[in-house]
Amino acid sequence: xxxxxxxADYSSADLQAMLDNALALKKELAAGGNKPVLKDKTLAxxxxxxxxxxxxxxxxxxxxxxGDALYLSPAEIGLGQRESIADVARxxxxxxxxxxxxxxxxxxxxxxxxxxxxxxxxxxSDYNHPCQGLxxxxxxxxxxxxxxxxxxxxxxxxxxxxxxLLHVCARLGANFTIAxxxxxxMPAAALEMxxxxxxxxxxxxxxxxxxxxxVKNADVIYxxxxxxxxxxxxxxxxxxxxxxxxxxxxxxxxxxxxxxVLHCLPAHRGQEITDEVADGPHSRLFPQAHNRLHAxxxxxxxxxx
Length: 305
Ligand code: CP
Ligand code: NVA
Hints:
alpha/beta; Rossmann fold; 5-stranded parallel sheet; 4-stranded parallel sheet; 9 strands; 13% strand; binds phosphoric acid mono(formamide)ester; binds norvaline
């Protein structure tokens, strides 16, 4: 596997091995620093959308592993506009050892991977967010010691983050439930794929509309923005539909007492999550964000070392 484009492209064993390595690299860092296993390796980071976590965690991951990263903003590259994606991919392949890209159309990251001779990592597309999914799995693993049999409930929009979360849960044996308003479903094919992986791992996939019913017995409650990057013109309409899906103290109280709350961030406090929950005892939002660093090191090492 040259690239990291989707959780679905990786087997349960591969994902588990990456999580084990992420834990080892996290421990190694805490014990004084990582070995320079990516010495002299370089990563180009191509962004068509804004980012805090993805940008900084990939940059720091490369530095801490002995390599270097180069940030290329939307204005600089003009992916598919100033220059074709195939040309960008072939040019960058002569300069750097890997490309991480955050794009709008998922097809654009697929095209990059097709034309680049170096590994391509999907740093979020309109369809999925696999780096986030791996960090989410790492956070759940650290909390509960396993994903097998853990009940993960996603509340909100059936978006890119939900797709990768479903796939990582289903691959690793966590039971996945989603509660979303009518008309904001996950893509049907992604859901079908999730059901297949769940059958293989002995877990379940449940789709509901009622958030209260969905969080019953949940060990993990997960939410994300109601309006993703690129959907800004729909935000008013979405703000009218999504309030019943807010993760607030009443919803958390309806879950398992040991439940943790996750959010990929950035959070829109007072919309999909309240301050009380985001900053409360169930929240693992910041350890989760920090785990992006460790999970992505495991991806980089798998593709580059
Ligand atoms: N969760 C996440 O990907 O954050 P950024 O958009 O800040 O990278
Ligand atoms: N669903 C969000 C995730 C941001 C990290 C978006 O695509 O904007």
